[in-house]
Amino acid sequence: MTDHVHTKVRNGTGFITLDRPRTLNSLSLDMIRAITGALLAWRDDDDIAAVVIRSSTDKALCAGGDIRFFHAAGRATPQGGSAQVEDFFTEEYALNYLVHCFPKPYVAMMDGVVMGGGMGIAQGGPQCGVRVVTDRTRLAMPEVNIGLFPDVGGSYFLSRAPGKLGLYLALTALAIGAADALYCGLADHYVPAAELPLLADLVGSTAGAGLREAVAMFARPLRGEAGPSELQAHRALIDDHFAHRSVAGIVASLRRDDHPFAQNALAAIARRSPLMQCVTAEMLRRGATMGIADCLRMERNLVRRAFEHGEVIEGVRALAIDKDHAPRWNPPSLEEVSDDTVARFFEPAWPAWAHPLRHL
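Structure (tokenized):
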């Protein structure tokens, strides 16, 4: 199906290696299908006791979805490609659900860039996830920067971060390192990049049934080397400013604070889509009380609305096509985003019995 995903089985462990280094392993539909196919086969194979997902490059596990594809296919007719956008998100979110609910240990080597769709294939649920970060890890949910929202289950895992950290990450789209990922509950273990060859040897020589505990024992004495968490240091500030119900209220609060951390967050928010920030805040509010399947169904609905509106097409144009970094957001300011406009994003695009993810 694709030359960019390699699979093998060794010692009771299934290995998935992403190999699209020129795009930092940005996910194509073929890659999503290859990963899904491997996981479905291994899920029901009694000879496979664990899964490891990793990269062929130390620069990234996965930088997200292929946004150039979104721009080209999203502007096309069904005959010209837009139906592939529908397939992409339906199948990607089904994969995210499979990862979250996988019945066997699922080890994600989150070395290098792990953003957007990369988070979706790394965030195994609490019953299976073994998420390893390194000193090279740069983790982010940058979707509001391209006129989208933190998807791939972001409504679930960001809404469950401590305090208002998830909303901070979602609205600013800023990247964090290993210590912050551990503090936010978005990673489990820290291993310095220099120690990864030893970890790889351990993973390769350990039977799959013992892999989860072996990784934990290897990483336990190394956790302190991740260093201090900046988000922990500024937790009170974040919780105070991002406690406001509206994005406009958050911005107004940040404007009154001359602390450099607050001003950096304010500057980041100013560059993002006002509309999609408001949609994102509402999505996280709702996601906090929903299970993973309902969160992904909500996100699938929001994707349809985002492409109907066109904000994501403009965001990708500005960032990746014309590269002028001057998106013409619609509307251009928070003050012009109405509650009714946000509410329309959450109106069902399908009856429940026809939802593309109804079977999750």
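The CA atoms of residues 331 and 337 lie 6 Å apart. The first strand starts at residue 5 and ends at 10.
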